[in-house]
Specification:
This protein is an alpha+beta fold. Helix content is 22%, strand content 33%. It folds into two domains: 153 residues, Chalcone isomerase, CATH 3.50.70; 111 residues, no CATH class. The chain has six helices and 13 strands. β9, α6 and β10 form a beta-alpha-beta unit. The chain is globular and about 55 Å long.
């Protein structure tokens, strides 16, 4: 299955680029690095629980060398490329989840001078057919910078290579010690009225996520942060929220005590604002395990 995946990545990469002219985001086009899935080192694979994506991250020679040396000071020219796939059941083995179709491509280019206002990294996000991902480029860039600043201690790089790291320097839990994102307790009564109305009247306090994500985010941020909010609500039995500094954009979760989930599960109510300008509130209801 892995061999077939790499072959499909190579075929997809070559055919899409041959047929399309790719636009640029922050001076970066997919055309510049169209063969990265064939030429660079596969560093790690991650599974996004919120979106059901499997994400394959590749590093060019400069980035891979820094990873091997456990350096957080990436040199100019270091580049990471990521291909995300939607997943589904393996028809031959139903207990297995496999990548089905590409959903997006992300590039992260190191240039300390050109990208000095974004911590030395340039970001670009593309659809599988080479178009820019929807949304305002400035907002998407600011959201990328804010998210990656959570792991400033590892050079703003999330990837943890498998197999050759010798020390605990790249421990996945290290980012929790930096306090770049953390919860405080706020009063529900201090929230905007439209958010208060979504909460059960019995809730007086709420877990309020603090940090850089409050200032810079885009639509996808609310999907990404939901598992963190759910985990905190399960731990404290209180509602949790990420609300932007604009007081209009938010992701909110709370335990629905009258829910009808199976034994050992808890029903979670989730509300979040959609893309601007309408910011329509979207409701999601899920059952999650208590552990």
């Amino acid at each position: 299955m892995i061999t077939n995946l790499f072959l499909s990545l190579a075929f997809w990469s070559t055919t899409v680029c041959a047929q399309s002219k790719f636009p640029e985001m922050n001076g970066i086009s997919y055309e510049m690095y169209k063969d990265f899935t064939q030429d660079w080192n596969l560093v790690t694979v991650r599974y996004r629980k919120d979106s059901g994506e499997m994400r394959f991250t590749y590093a060019n020679r400069e980035a891979f060398s820094a990873l091997k040396n456990e350096s957080s000071d990436y040199p100019n020219g270091a580049i990471f490329g990521k291909v995300s796939f939607v997943t589904g059941e393996d028809p031959s083995y139903l207990s297995s989840v496999m990548p089905m179709a590409p959903s997006r491509v992300q590039l992260m280019v190191r240039d300390k001078i050109k990208y000095k206002n974004s911590n030395g990294w340039g970001y670009a996000l593309f659809t599988p057919d080479g178009k820019l991902m929807p949304g305002d480029i400035k907002e998407k860039t600011e959201s990328c910078v804010a998210c990656h600043s959570i792991v400033e201690e590892s050079g703003h790089v999330f990837s943890k290579p498998i197999g050759f790291i010798k020390t605990s320097k790249f421990n996945a839990l290290e980012s929790l010690k930096t306090k770049k994102v953390y919860f405080t307790t706020s009063k529900v009564s201090d929230l905007p009225r439209n958010i208060q109305k979504l909460l059960p009247s019995a809730d007086k306090n709420i877990n309020d996520l603090q940090g850089v994500l409050k200032k810079h985010f885009f639509y996808g941020t609310f999907d990404e942060i939901r598992p963190t909010l759910i985990k905190e609500s399960l731990r404290t039995r209180k509602p949790s929220i990420l609300i932007g500094d604009d007081k209009k954009s938010f992701s909110l979760v709370f335990i629905n005590k009258s829910g009808h989930c199976s034994k050992g599960e808890t029903e979670i109510m989730s509300f979040h604002t959609g893309p601007k300008p309408k910011r329509k509130v979207i409701e999601i209801k899920v059952c999650v395990g208590d552990k």
